[in-house]
Amino acid sequence: MGSSDELKRAAAEAAMTYIEEGETIGIGTGSTVNFLIDALADSRMPIAGAVSSSEATTRRLKERNIEVIELNTAGDLSIYIDGADEATRHRQLIKGGGGALTREKIIAGASRKFVCIADESKLVGTLGAFPLPVEVIPMARSFVSRQMVGLGGQPAWREGVVTDNGNEIIDVHNLKITEPAKLEQTINNIPGVVTVGLFAMRGADVLLIAGKDGVKKI
Ligand code: 5RP
Question: In terms of domains, do 183 and 98 share one?
Fold first, then answer.
């Protein structure tokens, strides 16, 4: 195993063992998850359908003839599978590099098991080298940015990006996140914040990390 794509594919294929026939599966967003969608379609495993975390994932699921089901119809899910931008051994994550953090967090919250798939480059000791994405209501962008400075970060507006929910994203650089759950709560409480890309209070239940020696389960 070598390239990043091969590792992503290996992590995605390892996640297939967590899926059971007849289930409705929550599906995340990103290049690692795209390998999962392909593996799922190629396997022809009969599933009830998928709840999608983004318009991009919905398009890919439909291209691969996997039925997309609304979360409001599906109810609680047994499993959600998604990638991450950073992950710790405590299975706390930074997500949202692809801008889909809000729907991802909703589906993770509605799922009994969250399986996170990633290549080994995503495994870190402390979260925060990857800029922390924060989805904001557009009129709150500058206000929330100033609050991020107050927390010791350097906010950068992801200019030109509009999320699937019609909002904007701030990427917060240089945060050394030693208490992820506390910071998640603090940022959640700022008016205008829709979602912070810290998945600490509800982290992953299983982390599948692909490296050159195979896929490790954490
Ligand atoms: C999208 C995400 C993705 O899971 C994250 O960005 C990882 O993406 P990739 O699998 O392409 O590395 O949170 O909002």
Answer: no
